[in-house]
Write a structure and sequence with these properties.
The chain is of the alpha/beta class. It folds into two domains: 112 residues, Alpha-Beta Plaits (2-Layer Sandwich), CATH 3.30.70.120; 193 residues, Rossmann fold, CATH 3.40.50.150. 27% of the residues lie in helices and 29% in strands. The chain has nine helices and 14 strands. It has a seven-stranded mixed β-sheet with strand order 10-9-8-11-12-14-13, with helices on both faces. Strands 2-3-1-4 form a four-stranded antiparallel β-sheet. Strands 5-6-7 form a three-stranded mixed β-sheet, covered by helices on one side. α6 links the parallel β9 and β10. α4 packs parallel to α5. It is globular, with a radius of gyration of 19 Å. The N and C termini lie far apart (58 Å). The relative contact order is 0.11.
């Protein structure tokens, strides 16, 4: 089968938004080439060898590659994507030049090639994310293993926002808690909450592809008895308050529903927000406090922010 590869050079700030636009356009997978990968330190915890070719990465920003089945309508689809990216500026997100390159690839070229970059990664004191095709032996008795098959349409669970969210869950989730995961994506946070002892995890996402992927990963980790994955917009499907509510989504969306989130958190419960770029940190903090939350901790990794806040008793 022939596929059209769309290549978009954008900014770190716009990465999540551009990726979401591509998913909504029907992309069957994305590959992210991040200029910062060349300068990152990669701890050798599991014997991996990192041998990155600078020619495969942009000089700055990120290149997002998406894959669409080749058709006579590809021109119209590309123009719709271009317009959607162009509108990001109205939300205060700078997306760069908004240039889209198109090339043709065979399915065999990209269906499995990305897997060579994905290895077991220990991302917190207890959590280790392990791809399904890798063999891994825990190194400590209390280590929590999240098996993940991200497919070609989701991240590997090692993005800074995901890492900080799992670290935040590790700090806040207690045995038999009820957890609500807004915008679950691959379901990695929902699985993490269940592994920490949450008795009931309500995971939701608007994207039906995400819902399907999350259900598969929940089953892969044998947590179907604790995690329910449903399709829904923000908190529309919530029928009970949560001890911990987590939202790893865009800062602009977080700001728009802090009052609803306040109602969804039990008194004394925690609200974890992420997907926030550094420039939006203060805006999100102001929105949270205006709704009644008390900021407990602000975590930062690279230019990303995660905030743990508490609803007063």
């Amino acid at each position: 089968m022939k596929w059209s590869e769309l290549s978009i050079h954008t900014t770190h700030e716009a990465l999540d938004a551009v990726t979401n636009i591509l998913h909504e356009a029907g992309a069957s997978g994305v590959v992210i080439e991040d200029s910062e990968e060349l300068t990152k330190e990669h701890p050798d915890r599991f014997g991996e060898i990192y041998d990155l070719d600078p020619a495969e990465f942009p000089a700055e920003g990120v290149v997002v590659k998406a894959y669409l089945p080749e058709s006579s309508f590809i021109g119209e689809t590309v123009e719709e994507i271009r317009q959607a990216i162009g509108q990001l500026e109205s939300f205060g997100i700078q997306a760069g030049a908004n240039e889209i390159g198109i090339s043709e690839v065979n399915e065999e070229q990209w269906a499995t090639a990305w897997k060579k970059y994905y290895h077991p990664v220990k991302i917190s004191r207890r959590f280790t994310i392990v791809p399904t095709w890798e063999d891994y032996t825990p190194v400590s008795s209390d280590e929590l293993i999240i098996e993940l098959d991200p497919g070609m349409a989701f991240g590997t669970g090692t993005h800074p926002t995901t890492v900080m969210c799992l670290q935040a869950l590790e700090k806040t989730v207690r045995q038999d808690d009820r957890v609500i995961d807004v915008g679950t994506g691959s379901g990695v946070l929902a699985v993490g909450a269940a592994l920490l002892g949450a008795a009931d995890v309500h995971a939701l996402d608007l994207d039906e592809v995400a819902v399907s992927a999350a259900r598969e990963n929940v089953a892969l980790n044998k947590k179907q008895d604790r995690v329910r994955v449903v399709q829904g917009n923000l908190l529309d499907t919530i029928d009970q308050q949560g001890d911990v509510v987590i939202a790893n989504i865009l800062a602009e969306v977080i700001i728009g529903f802090t009052d609803d989130a306040f109602g969804a958190v039990k008194a004394g419960g925690r609200y974890i927000t992420s997907g926030i770029i550094g420039a939006k940190k203060d805006d999100v903090k102001e929105a949270l406090t205006a709704s009644g939350f008390i900021i407990e901790e602000v975590m930062m990794m690279e230019d990303w922010v995660t905030i743990i806040s508490r609803k007063p008793e």
